[in-house]
Amino acid sequence: MIPMILDGGMAAYNEERNIESALRSLLDQTLPPGVRWGKVWVVASGCTDRTVEIAERISAEDPRVEVVVEPERRGKVRALHEIFRRTRGDLVVLLNSDAGAQAGAVSELIRAASGLRPPFAVMGRPIVVQEQPGLVGRAVGLLWALHHESHLERLRRIEIVHLSDELLLVSGVGLPEIPGGVISEGNFIGAWLARRNADRSYAPTAQAAVQLPLSLRDHLLQRRRILYGHHQVASLLGVPPGTFPRFFLQHPGPGVRLLGRTLRARRHGLLDLLLLSGAEVLALALAGWDRILPAREQVLWERIRQPMLHPHGSDR
């Protein structure tokens, strides 16, 4: 039996605090029978810290890891181009360099992809390992909870469109080249697949720990960029993202029940919802302003301040 080859990809910019933890969270995964690692490509772009040094040290220790150094930071999509033109695997798993794949996550992605026909994509579940204290931390925790619940509902209805890019498995062939100016590659892939009625799925048991913004300013900065990216992909492909607000509008009854059970599971659910809603309205306004007067750099936006993730569990 010829084994299925799995390649990995990670784009990194000044991630000296997280790159080793993120990379080892992939390398330490136990793959299902019949699947073996090919290469894990790390594209470090315009780094001014120790990111390249750390990645190259791991590469010297583990022949599966290959490091590509870009002198200038050109955006994540450009880094992904470098990854995809080098991959030769049947499958490619992408992990954000500031996230961490939890034990068994990659196997769960591969299991969820069983039977899917290329081109396809399977999204893992971003999780908050520990909410940051205070209103902002709780509001962002609620955001990710609603993200998960609405994707479960869409999975049952076979209408997955929105694909988060924290942990994403894609087929090694058949996917399009993402335009260089796109800032939400997961959304682009999901919308492109939806337009072609191609396979896309959600694997809630494939979990990736994600970083949270530390302040309201950083949350707004992050959401402003994400919401700008949603509009950008909808304009390019004519497919709006499958977010919770859109699910709520499309399916009011299930949306109300979903929101109710999510809020009941939280001690300060209504207060968290009020802050989250207010921040989302403001972020939408800022993203709209960016579309009218695009003075900001849309691809190379300011990084948010984040706490360092703790080392993640592995299958070893």
What is the topological layout?
Blueprint: E1 4-12, H1 19-27, E2 35-45, H2 51-61, E3 65-70, H3 76-84, E4 91-95, E5 100-101, H4 105-113, E6 120-127, H5 135-156, E7 167-171, H6 185-195, E8 199-209, H7 216-237, H8 244-250, H9 252-264, H10 269-292
Parallel strand pairs: 1-2, 1-4, 2-3, 6-8
Antiparallel strand pairs: 4-7, 5-8, 6-7
Structure, briefly:
By secondary structure, the protein is α/β, with parallel strands linked by helices.
Describe the structure.
The chain has 316 residues and is α/β, with parallel strands linked by helices. 43% of the residues lie in helices and 18% in strands. The protein has helices spanning 19-27, 51-61, 76-84, 105-113, 135-156, 185-195, 216-237, 244-250, 252-264, 269-292, and strands at 4-12, 35-45, 65-70, 91-95, 100-101, 120-127, 167-171, 199-209. The protein has an 8-stranded mixed β-sheet with strand order 3-2-1-4-7-6-8-5. The longest helix is centred in the last third of the chain and has 24 residues, at 269-292. It starts with a strand and ends in a 24-residue tail after the last helix.
Q: What tags apply to this protein structure?
A:
globular; 316 residues; 8-stranded mixed sheet
Strand content: 15-25%
Label the structural class.
alpha/beta
Largest sheet: 8 strands, mixed
Rounded to an integer in angstroms, the radius of gyration calculated over CA atoms is: 19 Å
Weakly predicted, low-confidence segments: 310-316
N-C termini distance: 26 Å
What is the overall shape? globular
Q: Spatial order of the strands in the main sheet?
A: 3-2-1-4-7-6-8-5
In DSSP terms (H or I, runs of 4 or more residues), the helix count works out at: 10
* Share of helix, binned: 40-55%
